[in-house]
Amino acid sequence: MQDFVFNGQPSRVVFGVGSLKHLEREIEAMGAKRALVLSTPEQSSQARHIADLLGSRAAGIFSKAVMHVPIETAREAREVAAKLGADCAVAVGGGSTTGLGKAIALESGLPILAIPTTYAGSEMTPIYGITEAGLKKTGRDPRVLPRTVIYDPLLSLSLPVGLSVTSAINAIAHAAEGLYAQDRNPITDLMAQEGIAALARAIPGICKQPGDVDARSDALYGAWLCGSVLGNVGMALHHKLCHTLGGSFNLPHAEVHTVVLPHAMAFNAEAAPLAMQKIAAALNRPDAAAGLFDLAADNGAPTALRDIGMRQEDLDKAADIAVSNPYWNPRPFGKEQRNLIRELLQRAFEGSRPN
Ligand SMILES: NC(=O)c1ccc[n+]([C@@H]2O[C@H](COP(=O)([O-])OP(=O)(O)OC[C@H]3O[C@@H](n4cnc5c(N)ncnc54)[C@H](O)[C@@H]3O)[C@@H](O)[C@H]2O)c1
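A: This is the predicted complex of the input protein with nicotinamide-adenine-dinucleotide.
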């Protein structure tokens, strides 16, 4: 067995159908008395419901979370939290809302209780991102890791089917890259395989019946595992490409992950054969890259960048940005491999099935 280092993340996870009923108990266990509830404008009624459950422990609601955490929104939320005398934040929603909670915690140290309603996995990581003057800065800080996470599959029932599928494949992407990460370990490998299997099982079930609580539970369980992998080990080519396409060309987060993942896996297949075997086995399909493409295609998700807002004339620029400051990857992708990355992006643009 290879030597390894495992850093357990100090968060408490409460999982189960109907587990939102433990909210008050969990806020009390955190030692908090005045919670600021965070959400996007679209989920303000869910935030209201949470505030009602909190009763006198609710300090107020801030429902202006948006994608990529603009610094202006973060500042406003911090001011509101201070003005209301909040001693914790409850983030109900996807990665955008959790991200806003993290931005508040980064400066104030306010503890966060996260209630995830997508499969993005941000709640299990100490990674934050804040966008200033069009540039998204990311970093790691233990203060932003949510203190407690309540996973209640009932809250994900309203996630539209299309976003459910792409969000689930976004989660799979964390685990897939975790399986060839330089700093992976036997525990993250187990979490990654189990997470991919749970999500791959859940996706067709959710498509068939969006209200299927068992499928929703499998998906949220998989999201927890894959988010934990993301929080524990480094990411590589796939995440670099998605940050480039999402950040510089404003493509939607979960959809970009869904389209790019099969092509990133095909690029890395020969350099990371063991990881590919594990991904394929977890998917219960013969090949990792083609299996991920089919998982998306079979369940109505986008498979081509051109269908999610990318322009052919921007592919050169995207390749240049991606190779200018590469992450570690099992197969190098620096400036010398620029043409290979440009070809990968072309295949992703057209939505060709890897073989
Ligand atoms: N820091 C990290 O570790 C990390 C990890 C993953 C993602 N992220 C970040 O998270 C963001 C993406 O998060 P996301 O994909 O979860 O999307 P999101 O949080 O932006 O949500 C997308 C939309 O779906 C709505 N929504 C969420 N759950 C719903 C539900 N159950 N019912 C109805 N509508 C619902 C939201 O209100 C929003 O309008 C990106 O900015 C990404 O960079 C960060």
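The mean pLDDT is 96. The first strand starts at residue 12 and ends at 15.
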